[in-house]
Structure formats: C-alpha cells, structure tokens
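Protein data sheet
==================
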Amino acid sequence: MTVVIAVRFKASGKSYYFDPLDFEIIKGESVIVETTRGVEIGEVTMDRTEVADSDIVPPLKKVLRVATEEDKEHARENREKEKWALGVCQEKIVQHNLEMKLIDVEYTFDNNKVLFYFTSDGRVDFRELVKDLASVFKTRIELRQIGVRDEAKILGGIGVCGRCLCCKSFLGDFHPVSIKMAKEQGLPLNPTKISGSCGRLMCCLKYEQDAYEYLLSKTPAVGAIVDTERGRGAVVGVSLLKGLLKVRLDDGNESDMVEFNVEDVRLIKSPSKRGREKAIDAHAAAATGGEAVVAAGVAAGAGTGVAAISAAADIDANAYAATVDPETDIEIGADSTAGIAIDAADGEDDSVDDDVIDLLDADEESVALILEDDPPGAGYQSVEY
C-alpha cells in the first residue's frame, strides 16, 4: 500500500495520484507538483489515502510544495497570457492559411512550454506555424490535435436535457458508448436523437446501461418459450422497466395474448442469438414507435446492427464509410456520427468494445475499432526555440 493524494489540473479534468511526502495537505488546497509536462499547479481532490500499488502508474511523481499566494497569483497571470496567446495563434493560422480550428491554449506553470489545442478534419502541416509561434513566445511550443469530444469538454455548452454538458461539469474521463446501448434502452435509432453536442453518442447512455443489462439478463426475450399459470406460450412483447411480458398462449385451437409479471413465468427455451438481436430491435422500435424505420433498414438489405441503423436513418452516403475485412469478407462501417472509426493502423494497441463487436457480427481478431474521439492522424509536434 502507498500513501497518495489526488490532484486535478482542470475544473472537470481527471485526477492523478501524487506522493504527498511529509506535507500536511487537505482536500481543496492548491499544490505545486512535478508532472511529465513540467511543473504544474493543481487542486487536491482527495486527502492522504492508502491505495494498492497496482492502482498506481509508476513512476509516482512528488508534490513539490503547497501553493503560496505568489504561486496562485502567477497562475492567474498565466491565464491572462493564455488569452493573448490565443489571439496571436489565431492570426498566425490565418496568415498560413491552415485548415485548423484553434480550441484552447495552456501555459505550463513554469512557463517552459505553451500548448495549443486544435481540431481538424485531417493531418495539418504546421511546421512553419510552430516556428513562427516559437519566435513570438520564446519558449517551447506544442500543438496537439484533439477530437470533437475533447473540444466539447473544453468549450462546454448546453445539452438536449437543458443542463450543462456532463463532460464539462463533472465527467473526468470518457467511457466507450455503443449504439447497442441505445437499442437495449429502447431509444430512437436515429443519430440526431442519440447524439450529443459533439456529434458523438451521448455519454449519458452509459449511466443506466448496467440496470438495463441486469433487466435483460433476467427477462425472457421476444421469441422465448415460457411456462405460465395458464399454460405454455411464446413471448411476443416485453416491457423491461415495468417487468411485464406479453405472452401468446396456445389453448388448443385458439391463441390468447396475456400479460404476465416476469417473476410469474418460467423460461423453457431461449431464442437464438440472432433472435435476441431481433428482439432488441423490436423492443427499441416498439418503445419509440419506429417499427417502420427499422423495417426500412432491414428491407434495404442492411440486416441488423450498424448498417441497418444507418440505412433506416437514411444517413447520407458521404457520412457513412465502409470497408471489408479481407479475411472474413465482413463489411464493417465507420460511422462518424456514432463515434465508431476504423483503426488507422497507427501502431496503437486499441481496445475493442465487445458490444460493438457483437453488433457488427465480427470477432475481436478480425478488426480493431477506435472508440475514442481522436481522429486518424491526431498527434502533436514540439519544437524548442
């Protein structure tokens, strides 16, 4: 076990562990710490606490000192210089006629480096820009290309719920979100309905997913054969949150539709995996009145999964790119609206979300999917003046 404190450097940013040494530090104080970027000032978000060694990413950086009033004043001066630097960099971008959108500027606490964050549709040759900036600021310059989710986190905004964006107000990290979550929760299978301000799937889809997965695990799917107090029948409708099943009973020559509580039936036979996927589609369609929309996607030959949703939502062909895995002959989509992109073979060990693999009917070895928002080619360049 190791004694650490947690420090964050932005209001809604991620917290990092640091070695407090012998300093008496309490939550809410500002401290000066050593980071991989240099010396920084941050806010303590967790008091001295013992954590398992496996939870620490070595090497554990140390706290240099508790921030003084002079340190806090210096940090405020840096914030003012960032506003000036933002305007200077914007002018340089226009002069060089670069297709990039400047989002934010950061000064490290010790002023050894200035970081510029920008977004762009592709790679940008900013070597001349970096040289110009270095001649103006007389320090190291770093330009970092970020994705649309990070842009929304930095700029903020109001979500469709009427509240401040979650990523701006309290989310420290982005978690993988897939279209399958929206399907299982019975949400409209329309990218414009389930996308956030950044154009990606809303982060809040993750909040209730565990509850829906639990309910799905204990609820017979559409097509399942169950035993009821009135005899055996097939499930033809499911209301997950109410815990009700609509069962078609087989009473000789007549078929009756009766509702039962999930607890009052006994599962005899589950539907196949493909049948369960169709059941999820049916659940989503029934909950949103979108039976015709999903049917349109299936009729277009798209099957179930991402392609069906894209066809059903009538996504423009230019907004939906597809590739075919040479080993499996499976068509795999790159739906930018849903936040799913094909790995750009950048050598990174990108993790694969099992839900998305199930959705695409591909095994984990056949394709790697990037679930983060960084576009292919995102990176940074650092030049020392």
About this structure: The first strand starts at residue 2 and ends at 8.
